[in-house]
Amino acid sequence: MEQWLAFKDLSYEELKQKVGINSNHIELGVSYQKLNGLTRLFNRQANPARFYFVDQNLVLIYVISPTALANLSPEAIKNYFDKAPEILPSRTGKTAKHVVFAEHGLAFSQDSGRVIFLEIFPPMDFQDYLEKIYEEPEPSYS
Hints:
By secondary structure, this protein is α+β, with helices and mostly antiparallel strands.
């Protein structure tokens, strides 16, 4: 998990260099959940994470790769932090749960003992996460 959390500390330019981003890997004006007007950096061949920025400030890292997340278990992530998470419905399916450690800047969706996707963001309180990032899933998913 540290490999994903370490990306939070990189500047826009450092991240571009580390992940091999060129102009073909930059998309402007994209959205992620409630976040809009983002710049997305994504080089599928170099790294499975999508990096979202506003004015060259990192606002979210999104990882949804079964291969990249295979070594992460929901229990290992929960045990990494010293406090109980908030649990929300996940957009990934009816039985999935979205586990949020907002004060630590991390959330993930899990189902059947697997991490489905990972979100890394600047630490914030849970209410801010709900207002700024989290989007309630469609009724058919919850």
